[in-house]
């Protein structure tokens, strides 16, 4: 009787677990259904906001024709180049500023001033300096992605427990070994959080960059759709940006789970 009762309760528990897993998707689904119902009833004008059904059809059409993939590859190339430059530069400057007081005096004030400058104000200067080709677009992405990694890695280095540093010095570690074996591993969690922010900033910077005399890219696709009042294409571009941002964030989360297995966490599942 006990075995029979256990076999009957297990499927119910598994079904409940699956319901709990997909519960977070219920509110977005309800919003989409209400959106479609309002569009079908004529309450939402298509010129202002295209219906979800129209957006899906447009997405499939652009994907099947290869146009969406072409623009996506161009945007990915720009983001990859700018992100590599920005993250490398930001991390290097954070190491200089975080590991010595003199380095902080040389670097930190300049970085704090630069990060408060609005991107739109820098666009005319970047056009004068770099022209209207690919360079200003990549430069904007690099600039936008450098500051998050700089701020978080700098804070992570300065936040390493002083007792750990003191204990490592007692055991006879050299300055280089101390940085490599104690300070950098201790700052790694903060650096990975900064990398997640840098990925998001890179895509936001690209939206601005692809308004500079662009002839391809997701941003160019969205701006062209704006001129022709194609809100369906605009939403396709926004959805692509959202999916790319989510995918990049999940990739960094996977890296975090892999390289930070040593760190205890109160979240077990």
Automatic annotation (TrEMBL):
PROSITE patterns: ABC_TM1
Domain ABC transmembrane type-1: 68-252
Keyword Transmembrane helix recorded: yes
Annotated localization: Cell membrane
Topology of this chain in the membrane: Multi-pass membrane protein
Short name of any one Pfam family annotated for the protein: BPD_transp_1
Keywords on record: Cell membrane, Membrane, Transmembrane, Transmembrane helix, Transport
GO terms under biological process: alkanesulfonate transmembrane transport
Isomerase keyword on record: no
Main subcellular location of this protein, as a coarse class: membrane
TM region(s), chain numbering: 26-44, 53-73, 79-100, 112-132, 138-157, 233-252
Gene Ontology CC annotation, any one: plasma membrane
Family: Belongs to the binding-protein-dependent transport system permease family.
Role: Probably part of an ABC transporter complex. Probably responsible for the translocation of the substrate across the membrane.
Name of the protein described by the UniProt record: ABC transporter permease
Organism field: Inquilinus limosus
Lineage of the species this protein comes from: Bacteria, Pseudomonadati, Pseudomonadota, Alphaproteobacteria, Rhodospirillales
